[in-house]
Write a structure and sequence with these properties.
about 300 residues, alpha/beta, 8-stranded mixed sheet, 4-stranded mixed sheet, about 25% strand, potassium, PfkB_dom
Length: about 300
């Protein structure tokens, strides 16, 4: 069993500010940190910390930010053998986080646009593989990979973040689509449907999960609607919380959990993550998540 993440790796430059700046405004903060990030790297880190054997396929530059981008995955034990080193700057994100934990993010894709489906060997795809993708690498590379994965019997999950067009053929080959409430609204407008899981599933013909932060998550499947409340948490920094949720969910499914149990585990991990600063640095261990689940009963 394994989780294979095909996605982005960034160096996150995090600025702590009393409030988020308005358009054209400069807001002075106390400090900044360079941390590992990128939706792909974050989700790979979360999956590995949740106990899944995890491999990451992506691309970084040969600059000084590459090791920052990879540090979270290295610490979590993610397999980086499929990584490409390219002649482009490593992806980077500028993140402002206010006193309430809300964030504002700008991303420069850099080397993430150089990741290629050919980096994934056929041997890495099979019935025991959970393939997890996001939208920070080229969709043109994801589409043939999804087709190969389905032919090999792998389970395919796409986190539509940030939202963008996906070829209908690729969409129809997904086992699960994960969106947050903002991504759900975008997708609903594109599909001509309501922004809830059941309406989206009806419009798209695939299982859909909609995460709603402190309001929990809902999943629409052939068996009906599943609802998972959020665990109580005090938000310090919500950066990467969605990635924590997705990566932990993939790990749960890889371990043989049904979707309801995997969603509960993901909700617990995300509740821990929002109480800490950073993205990859905030991801909890399997033991920490297990302790919260045990305490919740």
């Amino acid at each position: 069993m394994s989780v294979l993440v095909f996605g982005s790796a960034n160096a996150d430059l995090v600025f702590t500010t009393p409030r988020l700046p308005a358009s054209g405004e400069t807001v002075l903060g106390e400090g900044w940190r360079a941390l590992p990030g990128g939706k792909g790297a974050n989700q790979a880190t979360a999956a590995a910390l949740a106990g899944a054997g995890t491999a990451f396929i992506g691309a970084v530059g040969t600059d000084s930010l590459a090791e920052v981008a990879l540090s979270g995955m290295r610490a979590a034990g993610v397999d980086l053998a499929g990584l490409a080193w390219v002649d482009r700057p490593t992806g980077a994100a500028a993140i402002c986080v206010d006193a309430l934990g809300a964030n504002q993010i700008a991303v420069a894709s850099g080397a993430n646009m150089a990741v290629r489906a050919a980096q994934v060997e056929d041997a890495a795809l099979g019935p025991s593989t959970v393939l997890l993708l996001q939208m920070e690498v080229p969709v043109a590379e994801m589409a043939p990979l999804v087709e190969r994965a389905r032919k090999a019997g792998a389970r395919v999950i796409l986190n539509l973040a940030p939202p963008g067009p996906v070829p209908p053929a690729m969409l129809g080959q997904l086992d699960l689509l994960i969106v947050n409430e903002h991504e759900a609204a975008w997708l609903a407008a594109e599909a001509g449907a309501a922004p809830d899981a059941m309406a989206l599933r009806s419009a798209l013909g695939i299982d859909v999960v909609v995460t709603r932060g402190e309001q929990g998550a809902e999943a629409a499947t052939a068996g009906g609607l599943l609802r998972q409340p959020a665990f109580q948490a005090t938000a310090v920094d919500t950066t990467g919380a969605g990635d924590c949720w997705c990566g932990t969910l993939a790990a749960g499914l890889d371990a043989g959990m049904d979707l309801a149990a995997a969603m509960r585990q993901a909700a617990a991990a995300a509740a821990i993550a929002v109480g800490r600063e950073g993205a990859a640095a905030a991801m909890p261990s399997a033991a920490e998540t297990g302790a919260l689940l045990a305490a919740a009963g």
